[in-house]
Amino acid sequence: PCRSPRRFFASITHRRFEGSDMAAAQALNNLARAAVGIGAGVSLFQASVYDVDGGFRAVMFDRLRGVQKTVYGEGTHFRIPWLQTPHTFDIRMQPRNIASTTGTKDLQVVTINLRVLSRPQVEHLPDIFSSLGIDYDERVLPSIGNEVLKAVVAQYNAEQLITQRSEVSKMVRTTLTKRAADFHIDLDDVAITDLKFGKDFTAAIESKQVAEQDAERAKFMVLKAEQEKQASIIKAEGESEAAGLVSQALEDSPALVELRRIEAAKDIAETLARSRNVTYLPCGGAGGGQNLLLNVGAGGQ
Description:
The chain is an alpha+beta fold. The protein is about 55% helix and about 25% strand. A 3-stranded antiparallel beta sheet has the order 3-2-5, with helices on one face. Strands 6-7-8 form a 3-stranded antiparallel beta sheet. Strands 1-4 form a two-stranded antiparallel sheet.
C-alpha cells in the first residue's frame, strides 16, 4: 500500500536529524581525542624540560647509568621523564659559623667562633653528589672546622691567642682551606670572630691589667716628682744668680736703690688709690710742707 505524503516527509526529516546527530557526536569524539592527545603531549613536554636558575648548577642522575659526569649550567634543559632526575646545587658563596671549645698550650679553655664563606667546585659536582650529597657543607665543614681549630689552638698559649690573633687566624685559614680542598670545597674567607676564655683566666687577665695600670701610674708619679725637683733646682739657681746680679748692681750704681724705692712707692700709691676711705690732701703752702693721706672712714668706725 502507498504511504501518505505526510508520513513520507516525516520519515525523511527523521533520517536527516539522525544523520546530523551522528555527525555531531563523531565531531565531539574527535575533539575529545585531540584534547587528550594535546594534554598528554603538553604534560610529556613539561616533564621533559627543567630549568636551572642563576647561581645554580645541575647534576643528572640516570636510573640506568647512575650519576652523569656532565654539569648543566643556567637555562632550560631536556631530560627523559622518569628515567632521568636533575639535582641542583647552589654554587654561590654560603656563610657558616663554626664554634669550637678547645684547650690551649697552657691548658686554658677557650671557645672560638669561626666564620667561613664556602662554595663547591663546579667541575667536581658529580663527585660531591655521589660521595656527600646535596647537603655536603653540613656533612663536611663542622667536622673539619672543629678538627683544624683544635689542632691550631693547641700550638699557642692563651695570651698568644690575643697578642698574635692575626697569625693564628692566618694559620687557621691556610690549614682549613687545604683540608676543605680534599672534599672539593673552596673557601673564599675564613675569619675568627670571637674568643672567649674561662672565668679564671679572664679574672687573671683583668688583675694583670689593673696591676700594669697601677705600675704605669706610679712610674708617671716618679717622673713627675723628678721633673718638679729639677724645676725647683733650676728656679733656685736662677733666683740665686738674680740676687747676685742685683747685689753687684747695687755696689756698682746706688741709683738702682732709688729706682727700686720709686717703684715701691708707685705700687703703694696704686693700692691706696683703689681704697675708698683714703683721701689725698696736697700741701699748698709755699714752705713745701708734706702732703697728707687721711683715712676718712676710720673715725666713723
